[in-house]
Amino acid sequence: MPDCDELIPEKAASSTTPSLLGVFAHPDDESLLAGGVLAQHAAAHARTAVVTMTWAPDSPRASELADALRALGAGAPRMLGYGDARNERAAPGRPRLVDAPLDEVVAALVQQIRSFRPDIVVTHDALGQLTGHPDHRRTHQAALLAAQDAGLPHLHPAAGKPWQPRAVYCATHPESGVGELGPLLESVGKAALAVPDAYATTTVDVSPWLEQKWRAILAHRGEVARERPLPGILARLPEADRTQIIQTEYFTRLTPGPTKGDSAALSI
């Protein structure tokens, strides 16, 4: 798979580092899956922000998320406040993300995209990352639809002026890059799903931003203290083993909106 030293090999039209809007299911997903890339872009003075789909803005995890985003230079939390599919304490009285109408969720994300106007949207892959969490998969679906809808003026007109991101990067794990993560997750009863290597179009060495990434992961103190969540698993590892796992981030690049096709007519 190709290697590159930044998320976007091609610079934006203005020759500046592209702005990023992360769209992730839970507090801590942003740090684990794209913390290095977020810190990298922030260090290059690009605009970065993160939308978090689940957990209420007044929950304990909200303050942890704020600390993590501060470490990554990604601004203040943007929490949509849906319930977690597996934790009823996430947002009492609110529908779970997996139960909310898809159109409603997409419209909320379109508003975030049009408000922030990112060059790039970063989100989960179709598998829902290694563990296949249903919130991850739902976020992937909604983010792809929102990235497409955001550029169309007749869709969600109340959500602001149209804006078309240039690309969506889906954080993923190729089969050859799972390494020790697979056995570690399986040891606590979790799945270890991965995509074929060809699906990982972009590989980013985030070693220069490892300190910020690890500080952001540790900010999710409740997850670090628990046995099964990945922050807790990583915190119990020797530093060298942990570094090996978190120093590389993988993505699948997708292009929303219209693209020029070939000159041949479709044959139906």
Structure in words:
The longest helix has 16 residues. The chain is an alpha/beta fold. Helix 1 packs parallel to helix 2. The protein has an eight-stranded mixed sheet with strand order 1-7-8-6-5-2-3-4, sandwiched between helices. The protein contains nine helices and eight strands.
Straight-line distance between termini: 34 Å
Percent helix range:
25-40%
* Structural class determined from secondary elements: alpha/beta
* Biggest pleated-sheet summary: 8 strands, mixed
Counting DSSP E segments of at least 2 residues, the number of strands comes to 8
Question: Topology as H/E string?
Answer: EEHEHEHEHEHEHHHHE
For the largest sheet, list the strands in their spatial order.
1-7-8-6-5-2-3-4
**Overall pLDDT, averaged?**
92
How much strand content do the residues show?
A: 15-25%
Low-confidence stretches are: 1-6, 8-14
Number of separate helices: 9
